[in-house]
């Protein structure tokens, strides 16, 4: 039986330790044909997130994949302070080579619009690992191109879980609530992977040791990235792998329990900025609310260990 044709994807990202793990998982997955990486400020500033994307591609020997620098700040409010959790370089001080290819001269928005318009409608998926600023600008400034996206799968939000930057707010949506609101309210098919799920896909120290012992270069790199999480926080026996859940859901949706909810995004100035609310007048979004955590981790490990 012939193999299915790889799915054409764009990764929109702010690397970021867990972004880096998600990117390496995508690179290890033959189901994906990665057309390009677009970067956004989030975990750390835009120059560093763009550099980190190029460094990850250089490590994986994939300098053929172009990197396009995107939004340096949210749509209409000041950008967040860098997360100390990811270190000064955004990837926990883990050594990576310099990019083998410079970032592209075109802005991410310009490239993404042109790319979508040149492909059959619905044939491109976007895997979004950071604030949704680039995608919101596409929706608002180039709706002709945005409507051609087959689906966005984004890590973001909290439904029944407590937030990680406020009582109800998760970092990616909190970093640019107006962008999140624009993407949620658009007609582009959207699947959200919130904290309700990502906190249940947890890497233990034993998991890290197994990756290190496997001998594979991608597995060893991911082990070092996760280990940097443990080194930054004492007395932690596991760490949630937020952004890789986007790739895992795209690869194996059967591991996730997905429901359609009608959602709105809080765009106020208070502690709930970026928070999601289930609202009958909101926009329909597919939301992952459950996951087989051990099976998701097993899939991650198997993909990394064979490369």
From TrEMBL:
Naturally occurring in which organism (per UniProt): Microvirga arsenatis
Sequence ranges assigned to domain Inosine/uridine-preferring nucleoside hydrolase in this UniProt record: 9-296
Pfam hit, one: IU_nuc_hydro
Keyword vocabulary terms for this entry: Glycosidase, Hydrolase
GO-annotated molecular function: hydrolase activity
Record-given protein name: Nucleoside hydrolase
Annotated PANTHER family: INOSINE-URIDINE PREFERRING NUCLEOSIDE HYDROLASE, URIDINE NUCLEOSIDASE
UniProt KW Iron-sulfur keyword: no
The keyword Hydrolase belongs to this UniProt entry's keyword annotation: yes
SUPFAM superfamilies: Nucleoside hydrolase (SSF53590)
């Amino acid at each position: 039986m012939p193999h299915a044709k790889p799915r054409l994807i764009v990764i929109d990202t702010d690397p970021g330790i867990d972004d880096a793990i998600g990117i390496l998982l995508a690179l290890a997955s033959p189901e994906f044909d990665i057309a390009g990486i677009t970067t956004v400020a989030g975990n750390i500033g835009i120059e560093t997130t763009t550099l980190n994307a190029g460094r990850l591609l250089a490590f994986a020997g994939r300098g053929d994949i172009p990197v396009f620098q995107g939004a340096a700040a949210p749509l209409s409010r000041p950008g967040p302070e860098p997360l100390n959790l990811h270190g000064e370089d955004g990837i926990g001080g883990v050594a990576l080579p310099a990019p083998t290819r410079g970032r592209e001269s075109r802005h991410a928005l310009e490239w993404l619009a042109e790319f979508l318009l040149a492909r059959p409608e619905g044939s491109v998926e976007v895997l979004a690992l950071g604030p949704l600023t680039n995608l919101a600008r596409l929706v608002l400034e180039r709706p002709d191109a945005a409507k051609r996206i087959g689906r966005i799968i984004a890590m973001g939000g909290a439904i029944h879980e407590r937030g990680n930057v406020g009582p109800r707010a998760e970092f990616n949506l909190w970093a640019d609530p107006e962008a999140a609101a624009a993407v949620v309210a658009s007609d582009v098919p959207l699947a959200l992977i919130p904290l309700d799920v990502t906190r249940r896909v947890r890497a233990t120290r034993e998991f890290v040791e197994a990756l290190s012992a496997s001998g594979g270069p991608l597995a060893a790199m991911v082990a070092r990235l996760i280990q940097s999480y443990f080194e930054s926080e004492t007395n932690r026996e596991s760490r949630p792998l937020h952004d890789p859940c986007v790739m895992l859901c795209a690869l194996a949706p059967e591991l996730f329990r997905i429901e359609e909810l009608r959602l709105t995004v809080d765009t106020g100035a208070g502690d709930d900025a970026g928070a999601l609310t289930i609202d009958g007048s909101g926009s329909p979004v597919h939301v992952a609310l459950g996951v087989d955590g051990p099976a998701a981790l097993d899939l991650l490990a198997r993909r990394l260990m064979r490369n």
